[in-house]
Recover the amino acids of this structure.
């Protein structure tokens, strides 16, 4: 048996970028046994047969590891610490008396990012667009980073660029310090309103941009820039969502909003009569994202693929039900219309078939 490709021992990968395992036959062997572990826990044991080309290709191994990387949020919003978004895995290949084991790290990521995960996470904040973001006063912003215990205490630095007497003045502080902890992921608020409050400055202060970066023991992250937009869009809805790496982010749509209300119901044949068994008055909204740059498209990609989306102002969970691209032929800018509705928890009603209307939330009456 010859191993042509496998995850490199000691490396760390994003889950979608874990290499396939490729084996070729070198003798009379007919099969191999694969054992996958997370730490010391066996998560898969499977036998593979060599094909007609005398090879075995075990594809998408990372999709197996993803199932064991479900985040545990240890602290509620606005300051979260997440565990179990990264783990140590091993793959043992056995053929007769021959055994080969490789051990590697995996970080959960639903997007196809092929760079070295450990070196990327050690320098960048955990967002697809990892250099800058447009924002505005009053908006909620989050940043997340992978904190290794070797970093020691982490200082969160912030620099404001303020207009004073027609001159741009730079002001820098350590916004906060996080104590040393075992390897985990921190999510913290990075909103301009919170930072102005820490500086003791009024909300009316004109800030053009602000930069955030981290320092620790033998560690300094890249700088993340927030660019403040002073325009006042007529429509604006801010969404929070869990991004492809499993941490919270926000996206603000600033285009036209359309409202639509309708009644939806299902019927069933009960005692030879068709009756409504569910009914729901649905309020749908369609909003335009506003024109987006290519870099900003990554946020939209994460938003529409997320299974945890909410409106920031109301903390109301929503479900996305459609998306449509809108192009401008004159300036080649692009935007999207997407439709969403509140996430409801409807329950079938069979006990009392004369009642037909369901509430949005669970009622013990129908247990």
């Amino acid at each position: 048996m010859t191993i042509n490709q496998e995850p490199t021992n000691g490396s760390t990968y994003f889950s979608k970028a874990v290499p396939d395992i490729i084996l070729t036959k070198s003798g009379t062997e007919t099969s191999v046994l694969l054992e996958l572990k997370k730490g010391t826990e066996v998560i898969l044991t499977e036998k593979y047969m060599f094909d007609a080309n005398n090879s075995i290709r075990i594809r998408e191994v990372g999709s197996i590891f993803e199932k064991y990387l479900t985040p545990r949020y240890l602290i509620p919003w606005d300051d979260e610490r997440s565990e179990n978004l990264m783990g140590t895995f091993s793959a043992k290949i056995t053929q007769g008396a021959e055994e080969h084991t490789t051990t590697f790290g995996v970080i959960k990521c639903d997007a196809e990012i092929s760079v070295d995960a450990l070196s990327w996470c050690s320098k960048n904040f955990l967002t697809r667009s990892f250099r800058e973001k447009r924002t505005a006063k009053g908006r909620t912003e989050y940043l997340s980073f992978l904190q290794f215990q070797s970093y020691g205490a982490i200082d969160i630095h912030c620099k404001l660029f303020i207009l004073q007497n027609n001159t741009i003045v730079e002001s820098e502080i350590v916004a906060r310090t996080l104590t040393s902890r075992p390897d985990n992921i921190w999510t913290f608020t990075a909103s301009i309103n919170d930072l102005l409050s820490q500086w003791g400055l009024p909300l009316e202060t004109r800030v053009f941009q602000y930069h955030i970066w981290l320092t620790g023991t033998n560690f300094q992250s890249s700088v993340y820039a927030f660019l403040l937009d002073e325009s006042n869009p007529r429509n604006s809805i801010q969404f929070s969502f869990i991004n492809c790496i499993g941490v919270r982010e926000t996206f603000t749509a600033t285009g036209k909003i359309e409202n639509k209300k309708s009644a939806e119901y299902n019927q069933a044949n009960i005692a030879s009569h068709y009756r409504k068994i569910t009914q729901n008055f649905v309020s749908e909204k369609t909003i335009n994202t506003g024109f987006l740059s290519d870099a900003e498209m990554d946020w939209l990609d994460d938003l529409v693929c997320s299974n945890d989306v909410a409106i920031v102002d109301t903390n109301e969970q929503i479900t996305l039900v459609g998306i449509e691209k809108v192009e401008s032929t004159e300036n080649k800018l692009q935007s999207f219309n997407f439709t969403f509705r509140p996430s409801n928890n409807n329950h079938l009603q069979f006990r009392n078939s004369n009642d037909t209307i369901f509430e949005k939330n669970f009622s013990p009456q129908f247990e």
